[in-house]
Amino acid sequence: MQFTTMAKPVGSRCNMNCSYCYYLHADSGQDGSGRMSDEVLETYIRSYTEACEGSEIAFTWHGGEPTLAGISFFDKAIALQKKYLPAGKHVVNAIQTNGLLIDDDWCRFLKDNHFEIGLSIDGTRMIHDMYRSDAGGSDTYSRVRNALACFEKHGIRPDLLCTVTAETAASPQAVYETLKKYHTGWIQFIPIVRRDEEGNVTDDSVTPKEYGRFLKTIFRQWVRNDLGRVNIQLFAETALILSGKKSTVCWLSETCGNILIVEKDGSVFACDHFVDRHHRIGSLMETPLAEMASSDFQKQFGNAKKDLSAECRECPWLPLCHGCCPKDRFALNADDERQYYLCEGMKAYFAEAVPVLKQAMKMSSEGKTQKEIMKYFRK
Length: 379
Hints:
Elements (H helix, E strand, L loop, with lengths): L3 E4 L30 H14 L4 E6 L9 H14 L5 E8 L6 H9 L3 E5 L4 H7 L9 H13 L5 E6 L1 H4 L2 H9 L5 E6 L16 H18 L5 E2 H10 L16 E4 L4 E3 L10 E4 L5 H5 L2 H8 L6 H4 L4 H4 L7 E2 L8 E2 L2 H23 L4 H9 L1
Helix pairs in contact: 1-2, 8-14, 9-14
């Protein structure tokens, strides 16, 4: 079975206190101190390397904030990767960071070791500081900007990850233009949907209607002005599926469950959004990762994504989204079926984007340049 992992070297520990963070309160059985031991680290790298079937072995380091583990931790990880690397294969490392600890030393290390980098930044200063304070309650936008400047100085182009809250969705143009000016080349928008203890959607969550408006507004700007200059994950994945290929991201795939979470103590969980005691598969200190990835529990978890509402099964956009992420499937009323909360917004986006992407792909196949395609859509 092909699967990947996201490892959390310091668990959910973080030097930020983002208001929408789901990891800070995850029921994972982890304490909030320390980092992954050398024993767990070596077992993880050996077990994952043995399980990977392809020529590329991709390690993703997540959190919390993984840079809290320190450069020395990742030095050990790289040494162990080299120790267990089979002939004919190669390693790729990726790290997701909030940027607060990024300095010249980190940039040199990440560049020298060819890390792929994801940097979290929520668009404009006002929106970012509204949601993303540090552990002491102070604003962080300026410090993330400094991280971006440091990356640029060292010739690093990180992927930008921007959450879409109610506030973000109200300012699509400003958010997109702000992120675009950093010239990193890749942007991922992540919708925030949270519910309180009574099951009600929180005020900071993006609504379906506003999510659709947000995506459509940015799509129009992108297809008219930024083809070939800016890559946006959802747009790229939509085009990929329209070309007859399968999505590379779990939330648009027919099934899920092929991205396991490895906690700092070696506990393994079914999914990034289900790090709780009910979805703990086991421990890599006791069971090989390959065995856990192919377990009946994990297969059932992944195949459960096919459990769709009647409306979903009849939807013309189903081949493009497959019901999206199960994390956000729920019924708003007792008599309703469980359905993806942002369905209305995704339908609005697909109705806008699919005809345009098909036309753009047709023009490209006819030899039209990206400049010519953008000019066509500006008309």
